Automatic annotation (TrEMBL):
SMART domains: AAA. Residues 1-12 have a biased composition (Polar residues). It holds the Pfam family AAA_5. Gene3D superfamilies: P-loop containing nucleotide triphosphate hydrolases. Belongs to the CbbQ/NirQ/NorQ/GpvN family. InterPro entries: AAA+_ATPase, ATPase_dyneun-rel_AAA, CbbQ/NirQ/NorQ/GpvN, ClpA/B, P-loop_NTPase. Residues 47-198 form the AAA+ ATPase domain. Residues 1-20 are annotated as: Disordered. This is AAA family ATPase.
Amino acid sequence: MNSIINNEQQQRQTRRYGENETSLIQEGGYISPIPDLWEDILIGVVLKKPILLKGPSGSGKTKLAQSISEFFHQPMHSVNCSVDLDAESLLGFKTIITKDGQTFIEFVEGPVVQAMKKGHILYIDEINMAKPETLPILHSVLDHRRMLTNPFTGEVIHAHKHFTVIAAINEGYVGTSPMNEALKNRFVSFAIPYLAGVQLREIIQNQFPEASPTLVDTMMNINEDLKKQVVNGLLSEEAASVRSLLDCFALAEHIPVRRAIQYAIAEKLDDKMEQKLIMELVDTWVK
């Protein structure tokens, strides 16, 4: 398994780390919370399978995509989905330019076309936020054909051999809708849980090396309590977000822990009862 990943990494690599550059983890890259998850996803990438990352907000899906980009030294084009996403946002648009006194119509290539032609990674964030009628244009890109007929230019585009598609999905969130089965079946899906235990501590200590052991232990304990309440259905998943926890650490280096958690976690939630529960949990650890 490692040989196929390493061979592909060498083929895609456009630069090598210098003596003064750091490793992926030292740069704050993704750490897998589940044994083999990282390598299994890399295998899917090497095999040219579109990758779907499923997990709650703040579980590290975007960081994972960025780490894959770093691992293969492969640039990444991002699409942030919303109800306003349309074909032009994906493929590009025509514009009028004037050069040397003459007027031309020029096509400005969008992220899908650029990634396909250059062999880059296409990262589609919150793919289930897009309108269902927008995404079928990508069906031929995502299946064995790996090609696209651009409806704006008529150009037939065959994907570069290193072209990679990674999509992320937050299931059950407000504003999302179930993925069309024809679209979902084109992906290999991976569940991305929150970091915990040793992996979470490593991320924290890497990003905040000066943080006191007492602060790290306190934050870890609070995060564990928040995750338990998420599992019990008393808190929204956002309350246990690793992203929010790291925001807390950044604030807690300058202000009291209780206020840091209030600003970085509690105030993000709309439900007043959830906000109150979070602060009550904090009070059991912070005096």
